[in-house]
Structures
1.
Amino acid sequence: MSSVISISKLAKHYQVPEREAGLKAAAKGLFKRKYKTVKAVDGISFDIQPGEVVGFLGPNGAGKTTTLKMLTGLLHPTSGEVSVLGFEPAKRPHDYLRQITLVMGNRNQLSWDLPALDSFDLQRAIYSIPTDEFKKTRDEFIELLDLKDLVQKPVRNLSLGERMKMEFVGALLHKPKILFLDEPTLGLDVTMQKRIRTFVAEYNQRYGATVLLTSHYMADVEALCRRVIVIHHGQLLFDGDLSALVEKFSAFKTVGFTLENPAADLSQYGDVVSVDGSRVTMRVPKEKTSAVTSRLLNDLSVEDLTVEAAPIEDVIESVFSVRKEALE
Amino acid sequence: MKRYFDFYASMMRMSVLEQWQYPVANYFYMIGMLAEPVIYMVVWSAVANQQGGSVGGYTPGSLAAYYIVWTLVRQMNIAFTPYGWEWRIRQGRLSMSLMRPIHPLHEDVAFFAGWKVVMIVLWIPLALALSFFFKPDLHPTLLEGIIFFVSIWMAYLIRTITLSLLGMVTFWTTRVSALFELYFAAELIFSGRLVPLSLMPEWVQQAAWFMPFRWAFGFPIEALVSSMTVNDLFAGLGMQLAWVFFGILVVSQVWKVAIRQFSAVGG
């Protein structure tokens, strides 16, 4: 199967002026400016197949958004090659823009003062969507996101979560083949995050769309993405299955159990993370998990016991803390 | 073409709906803008009266007509300023516009065109009130009326183009305000905004012919208020058309270079 997104040795470098503090440096800067090269993205390569939902992870400043902007044609790469749906995004041909969408959690494109229905109609005109098809898709999305009672209210009167759902409807009305989602659940409560995730998953299944998602909420990534790409300082750290990432970088497992006698000394078994009444949660080195659980069951009166992989947040944190050289 | 027509109709409709949400604010905005022409009108009428009833061929009645029509042309002149460009880059709005399969300048033109429909409707009572107080001497022919109607929209396009060119400077520097001030000063002198161009020195009038300012401001007023010959009316319209085509050419070339500088700082 041919890739829908293919990037090779992609780089984006910025020349940033820099000078020391003080009047003297300011005066000197008038005649001779110093520049520093910031490598926002530094030679990353990956391919994405049609219909894949890929998590694009990294700490703040890792280069995720810069990469998304190059993929969507907002930024011209410094070097490297980008091909999305066979197009060169930086040229921003209209045929390309009609097949993609970018949803940013902190940006909106709906008119603040009008009901979202009016903005949807503008989207229809922008993307030249035939009226019948537009109405069918619009109503389908409104139903999927349970927005029927809200579409006639001015957008300014909607909650953040409701607005975000409307943004999704507006951004997907033209049924794009590729969704670039940049922190789409930013600032939303847990229920609303879940709703958005379900909608994205539903859209992906119904239309076979490809999704590239950046999010700091690991629940988004776990729920939607089988594959993750991790970048840090503009360089690729990991590209593979989420389960492989957890397996590779998780040094610990989480063991939870309920004790009949909560007063027992547990320090010999591992690090106690929390004690909630008789329920205990411990962190145990991965290679010692079997031995520790056996001992716990033999030594103590344990009512139930669960072993889980470490939380994905912890895994990602450990990925970032490992030096790149050590990963290769 | 049908696609653009549909887009313009939808965008203008949205703009009208948005602006009707705030009629009072729009009215106050318009009233605030009346101070400038009223001051010019009072000063020049006083000068005309002191000089025996006219100055440079303008009587207090024709000066009143000039400045009342001025208020409408000024409304038509409102376009997206370089400050607006700075704002939309910082807010990440330009990024969202660039994601659409339509040039962002079409959005600007269509949005402000819709706003103007609202402003023209709101302007009518104000013009009637000003006419009641200042007694304009205005007797346009049908042809002058038609030329005026076309020329105010052409003026709008010319000013949108020139301000867009200035706005695009924000792709290189976010401090475009100094340039805008310079533009504003030149516009004040060479457009007929401060005073009818026929009252300016000869060299200003000649220079103004080759600049966009007159065609974006003074010409529509003169078309309606002054008794221009048919040849002059069509020559003026031709100049406006030339500036629109030339402007579109320059904008499209500058855009190609400018967009490569875009760093999407605001998102």
2.
Amino acid sequence: MSEIPVLETRGLGRRFGSLDAVSDVSFSVPKGMILGVIGPNGAGKSTFINLVTGHIKPTSGKVFIEGKDMTGAAPWDIARAGVARTFQIVKPFNGMTVRENIAVGILYEPHGTNRMAVALREADEVLHTVGLAGQGERRPNELSTADVRRLEFAKALASRPRLILLDEVMAGLRPTEIGPSLDLIRELKAQGTTVIVVEHVMKAIVAVSDEVLVLAQGKVLMQGDPHEVLADPRVIEVYLGHRYAKRQKGNS
Amino acid sequence: MTTTPEVKISRNLLHTWIPSVVAVLAVIGALILKSHIPGGELRAVATIFMFIALSQAWNIIGGFAGYASFGQVVFFGMGGYFTAVVMLKYHFSFWVAMPLSGLFAAVFAMLIGLPLLKLKGHYFAIATLGVAEGMREVVINLPDLTGGGAGISVPIAGTFAKTQYLGDGGFYLLFLGLAIFSVGIGTLVSRNKFGYGLRAIHQNEDAAAAVGINTVRSKVMAYGLSAFMTGMVGASYVFQQVTIFPERLFDVEITVLMIMMVVIGGSGTVIGPLLGALGLQFISEYLREHFTSGHTFILGLIIILAVILIPQGLVNYIREGRRTKQYSLLTNIRRYRL
């Protein structure tokens, strides 16, 4: 196993005007790990993903992908380096069929086919993997909320990434629909893909993550074992407030 | 709900040999037609071919990539003036001048595209319109090179003319060739990786970039390709007209016609702009013949109705109808209301 982490950031930060949306985030993810990223609203989780994938340029710090400095690189260069993502607000290609949505990602994958007919066939496999088999000829705007989330996931999988960043893929899903998503994430890990899961659904994070990173006000609050992190009074405090954390302490 | 096999089969047929057969028949038809109609009508049909080529060119950047170029005529005008100048002053053959004019327009498009294609929606549209209006003024103010407002004439006969005037039949064939070329390019783009990249950019640029599409390069290439096709058509138009003026060659009406044809026919498809160009030119000619006084009024009314009732264009409306079995125009308005 190689020692180079799939993703490493050093002092990564982004300032919007006078607001530090993300500041001084340093961490690394070894190959094959599932890292959960949690944090209250406005903690900078989505900004953090955007900084890694190049959709937002950092104002400070560095991003290394498999040891290579990719700070400030364009999103398509990061994608071609093997990093895929989903968007919190889903962004399907509405004018195309579901199958074509996936096929585009396959066409633009550096080692993938250049022929649409081949890409369309391969897209069916991806659709099958995420549970969208048989929906290929429909349009994204005809799908249910859960299926649109699956499509968002499938679009990220299409480029066969080595690192995948999932921005709240389980938001809005019913509890019964979360199970299959978690299985899919574990399946990715089994295939050697590194996964970063940003999520609001705590149960899901604890169930699937090897490690959890907590962001609060744009900074790393802590990183470690999921159960330990969630029991930490500092984490409880950022989520539920100072007084609640104190009371919890008194009770225990 | 799953797709029925019949739907798949009919789609496959529609995507493979039927269009090719129709295209070949149409070209044969056009060639037969040539020897059966008089000069005036040859010119009218050549104009239809010209607009087929122009609408296909606009469709690359405006339809596939979704960047509404309201200043597209600038490439028409620049291609035209490039040909006029090199034929008159440097005695170029038209057949050399025409592709060079396309390249000239393409390079210009790519240079202005780098900053302009960062703008979105109306901002891009207005900026390109500004470029076209500005370029007309530049041409007017360079009388030594372009003849300025007094116009410029291409040599068409005698020792100065490397290429002799083609005549009505020759231009008919030239514009037919350009139409075939542009429909071919459009077909290629609609099916290949580049075209799917443009569609993805059209629908969501961030998502397109996230799957590895170099959105800047794709957009600039699309703009360049669109300008290349437009510039060659402009060059041919100039040779046909012999004497040209900045007002006509940079006329915003030419852009408007391209956009109308693409939008009414169905943008982002190959057949849409083709039908749009054919339909609009035919209706326009028909009305001119039968309603001498009110023909522009009626044409305007038809266009307004078409845009309100089928804003996605005829071809996209039919495709959606076939898919959803829903042809009601009222439903259609509701689907596309703002």
3.
Amino acid sequence: MPTKIEKDAVTGTMTTGHEWDGIRELNTPLPKWWLWVFYATIVWSIGYYVLYPTLPGLNGILGWSQRAELADGMAAERERIRPMLDRIRATPVTEIRNQPDLAAFAVAGGRAAFADNCAPCHGAGGAGAKGGFPSLADDEWIWGGDPDAIQRTVAFGIRSAHPETRQSQMPRFGTDGLLTPAQISDTAEFVLSLSGRAAVPVAVERGRAIYAEQCAACHGAEGRGMAELGAPSLADQIWLYGGDKAAIEHSIQVARGGVMPAWTDRLDEATIRMLTLYVHQLGGGR
Amino acid sequence: MNLVTKSGRAPPPVEAGDASIASVAAQKADAPLYAHRIKVYSKSVAGPFRRIKWVLLTLFLAIYYLVPWLRWDRGPGAADQAVLIDLPGRRAYFLWIEIWPQEVYYITGLLVLAAFALFLVTSLLGRVWCGYACPQTVWTDLYMLVERLIEGDRNARMRLDRQPWSARKLGRKVAKHAIWLLIALATGGAWILYFVDAPSSIGPIFRGEADAGVYVFVALFTTTTYLLAGWAREQVCTYMCPWPRFQAAMLDEHSVTVTYQDWRGEPRGKHKAGTSWEGRGDCIDCGQCIAVCPTGIDIRDGQQLECIGCGLCVDACDGVMEKVGRPPRLITWDTLARQEAKAAGRTVPFRWLRPRVLIYLVLISVVGLVMLGGLAMRATVELSVQRDRSPLWVVLADGAVRNAYTLKILNKNRDQDTYRLAVDGLPEARLAVSGDDGDAVVSAQPDSVATYRVFVSVPAGRKLPESTPLTFSATRQSTGETARHGSVFLAPRP
């Protein structure tokens, strides 16, 4: 509290009357207009209470909300990109790749759609995951890796409920008793030999005959696979369900194959095309 | 009033309502915690320092208004404005220099240089920046000129303000504020021209066809110019500007400042023509130094925060000394050390080279050289590399290991060019550009960033550590200029 307002002997300036442990404050008056500016900011703040949501229950006469602002922004953005999406709908995917601006837009849009819809199984960046979720960044394609094939897979899925789905079923050679465990073991040994990894030459020779009879129709005589039937190559270094002998035997035993939903009913045509181009440029597109 | 001033002298008595001349400090000595502003009616004055101020004012205003119109040819398709800050285009142009946003340190360096130059000048010559070059001073001077032309000089203005409102008074006030606002508008408008192409933008701005943002900024700078130069004036220097508060740290007893030579002027008092000057000082206490002061101070009180060092009181006092037949420069530019010596009857020379001056000079040289070096060695091609984080690597059908990278080539040149991409650090690594099966030669548009997705693969069967350092390079084919950027190649655990 102000105690004694007096004149400071050294400077000749009046003190404010405040004193702290013997230290007194000289009075250097603040300009009145400065004080009024401060009051003006208080008055200004009242405007916010009137116009904008402030305290709970006070929503402001402008009806402004962050949620509405976001919705407006999203709507404006959708409107902004509409011409590009129209162009994508009107252009075949193979043709989009020849138009740099459209291709860049499609890949960017596909990246976002991929993260939302595909990454849970195929991993960020199409890295793939153990247990039958193939990598989309490598150069092996079970159902084909050219843009049209990718687009068809995305649109209709694999073993999905859609009538145009990609469909194939490998026989369950073990479960259904088509081959004996010994024959399965020999076949697996032969499959290993296709990628140069066989250990028992006699078993490979025994397996060769079984493979030619049972497997070659789909996987090909040299195990190169057949994309039309979704039969993967057995001659390369990429193994969806594991490439050691036990894993191969298990695959022959129970006939493994994944399921992918059809996206044509969930995503619009433009998004599917953008997804196609994004997946195609991940690294392995043909 | 019984003020004891710094020099231990009592200033002349001032009574309330007295029309005699008193400094602002003297007028508000008994003010409460909040003080009314005491309006400063500065009188016109003629003299060498006033002339210097007019010359500099003209020069600075000319620079400010004309620079946006200077052209600079940077080749076809490029901005041809000599000084331009292109915010949407993310470029800043200054004559032959063009900087990208990531090179904003050049501007930082300029600001550092400006700060040290200010410190240097202040330690040598006191607040000449404040008195002669500060925009607040320049525009306030201009506004005061307008005010004087319309309302008359100090006494006429004081009289006008005391008069009741009349058509004549209203007319003068309206005219003054209208011209002030026009000047403010021109100031705010010219500011915009540093951010847009001046010749092609000025028409749309006048026709109301420019962006709303342009008008917001014109309005902002118009308002601040009008308020700060028309109304706030010396209040900006006294209350808002931080510089007066700490510029004293650059001053010492050898700094040249505006100084009242009290050993010569005191004891002051009125002097009747023809009487002797024996036994008294030269100061006739006419108050002209206060009357002309744009901040309303009494320089005879000694150095004070409000003094902007403009030297108008020197001109005013010289005029008076000439009239009364005494030597000029009772108020002068001098140092405290010299004043002390003169008071004791000695003369000492100015001391310009002092440790602080040398330190500032060294700092200015170092920063200047570093900036010059940076500018001279500024790369016109840069490369940045981001490696894919997912997947970290891909094993291909033939067992090769492949990593993917995004390369950005910053082509700061004015022509389109092709760049050869290469990778160094893995002997057998093969580099391929996505969507291009060729020779890893890519093109970049002029003055832009070209982005390419690049695959690096190592054939199967090679022993690879989990992480191998790599260096990417982009070589400009026309000049051989090469930019490099490091990254790593990741492989599955062996």
4.
Amino acid sequence: MHVKIHDLIVIGGGPAGLAAALSAWECGVKDIVIVERDKELGGILNQCIHNGFGLHYFKEELTGPEYASRFIDMLRDSSVQVKLDTMVIELTDDKELHVVSSTNGYEILKAKAVILAMGCRERPRGPIGTPGTRPSGIFTAGQAQRYVNMEGYHVGRKAVILGSGDIGLIMARRLTLEGSEVLACVEIMPYSGGLARNIVQCLHDYDIPLYLSHTITQIHGYPRVEGVTISEVDDNRNPIPGTEQYIECDTVLLSVGLIPENELSKGANIAIDSRTGGPIVNQSLETSVEGIFACGNVVHVHDLVDYVTYESSEAGKSAAQRILKIASSNSADITHSITDENADVIQLINGNGISYTVPQLIDLKVKLHNIEVFFRTNRIFGKSTIHVKAGNSELKRFKRVRLTPGEMEKIVIDEDTLRQCISKGFDEIEVSVTEDPASEENVHFPVEKTVTLGEVL
Amino acid sequence: MINKYDVAIIGCGIIGASLAYELSRYKTRVVVLEKENDICCGTTKANSAIIHAGYDPQPGTLMAELNVKGCQMAKELCADLGVPYRQTGSLVLAFDDTDMQTLNTLYRRGVENSVPGLRLLSRDELRAIEPEVSESAIGALYAPTAAIVSPWEYGIALAETAVKNGVDLLLSTEVLSITDESDHWSLQTKDQVIKADFVINAAGVNSDIIHNMVAEPAFKITPSKGEYYLLDKSEGDRVRHVVFQCPTVNGKGVLVSPTVHGNLIVGPNAVATNREDLATTGEGLDFIRNSAVRSVPSISFGENIRNFAGLRANSDVDDFIIGICARHFVDLAGIKSPGLTAAPAIAVHAVGLLKDDGLKLENKEHWNGTRKRIRFSELTPEERAQLISNNPAYGRVVCRCETITEGEIIDTLRSPIPAHTVDGVKRRAGSGMGRCQGGFCAPRIVEIISREYQIPPEQVLQDGEGSFILAEHTKRREI
């Protein structure tokens, strides 16, 4: 079959893909194609009709569709091509894409660089293994969001929400505003997986009870949900006998986690980080396959779209640099791979309290700059210190008032620190957290104050 | 509507469907009555999906004979009908000396039942062909003829082909009572009376109820619930064969097996229950996990995508209950495991019984026993390009996990037994079977069903009657 060649192909036209394509175009790449499986650009933002988007990036409060449309409008003035209603069904490590659509049929495309921006999907009932019947009326929160916000249909009258991820919290409010009753939000962990502002604005403001350390232990009813049994769980998340309570409902929403969507990445033999579920990337957002970059929720699940935009702009810039370099040199000497054994890399190690970092490694062959490191903690920390160490020496430390797994954090490792590290021959940097003892007052290191969005609002 | 049928089959699971298929060869007028709103919704859709080799049933029983025959027939039949089938072979593991004795018994039984190719494997031989089995497994019985199949597609393909060849099917038609009109039977349903000369009871877990409508109670069905895990394709290669443990009085025990769709199936347990109980339980699932890791310790249950439960039509008889229980009335009852395997052989056997009982059979001149379904994901790029250029609907991927196109969804809505629910589409096209479990495609399938049948989305069902998905339109609700 005929193979069409492009400079850059972006897989996914949600917030990540839009920002990546736009940034690559601004850097001077003109032959860009976005492949989007839905009938319009914007991705999941289109069903997020609530506000709160863009506070960081646009310094104003937008709805999801408004946020998306800003980028769509900017792209309109560019030469970026968009293939809508088109599914990528295969990606190879040679950057070849097999795509299908009703309008253009079966096509094989090839690119000098590819940006993965497929986003994530919701975890369904299976992985959490909730026992009971299999009636209708069980939705993932995002599915319900699509039905209610985009298609205009109620999903039920009395709902219980399992999990307290952000979409579940947002849907608790949405269903309430649409006239349904939300009877409970049930979270197996002792803390919510969602943003603090969503707990306040979506549950507390509507008197919806949040049951922490609880889970649904049985779903009842057929053909439609008739109720759920919820139970308290112990420290090992096992239900405690005798704590069962029955809640009558006709709808169950699942908000039990998001999974980066990496089927295509795996098909292209891209190394996946088991902690994030996304590709391992370096500071340029390049994956283990050279010329394939990744950004947004396909790399790690973000809380705020603004950060997706920042990250994706970086990925777009990196991809553009590669493409322009190929254009200006006739040799293939720019190729390198971050898994290449001879490549000079610094691994970022997850120390105490850290569940993952992005990037996972720093490629020393890429021009060094200040590097933003995103991470999540694996439990709640009060007033605490983030340590950045190499060997036995501490390079940097940061202070935080509070850290929770539900809120993504960011630190910056500056270029000087990196150079120090390189000159000493370190090939690992460890990031860790310790909770401050109440009396500790030794702040000899530069401290960066972080304001979480919850505080802003 | 035919005034009087030659044969009425009660129940359209794998047994009713197999018999309908077999009878569709003849000029006989056949009707199948199914109480659910779709076919193959009972035991046929929720079981281990195994074509058993046949070493398990006691020699001399009808079960043994029909199991081995059915196993032989399945391969060709599935090829004819375009049903996913893979001959994986099966292993029964032994963990101690008692188990080894059981393997010897099974081996002898299998030989007596004429099961081809049975072999007892040493520990090393076992690990060579199935590296992920537990190190504590000391030997195994290997049965090369065992296979895996898509059970509901098997049943649907048989029934569809029967319908294509002239068999009538009535859905949502529960038989409430049966009257002997001396020269024919009258079957009372909610809306109508169906008349037929011959009646076949293929009512699965309800086959005793149907039997008791025309004859003295002779057996009792006590449904036995089996719960399962279905794991993601990332676990699909965990084992290469169907891996059993030694059977007990409760059944064939917990098995670990690849599926034809590329997943891993683990289960079942066995719990006596009522005819409606299809709920999974915490205890049941715990038991399955704990039992399964004895066979294959490396199974990653975190990769689970679905739990489900099915009912076995267990009876108080140690064999299938197959025979004439009243004049021109045939029971195909108590069809527990290996019922899926035996189904086509049961059908051939039942046709013989009907013939002996006076049913006239004359071959149709134009009978087509084959069926083809377009499976986009299995085509080459060139074939896909051709398909889309002929019909652009095949270019729109609706189910991303399983790469199922809108064209294939529409095919199921226009098939001889059209799907009209989201799960009906799922069983026919495979949409929603993957790791996101319909999270992405379900709203799109609701939209397609709504569009094609010209019904509002809130009338589209998930599965059985009453399983509505959407309530009213958000802007139409009275406050």
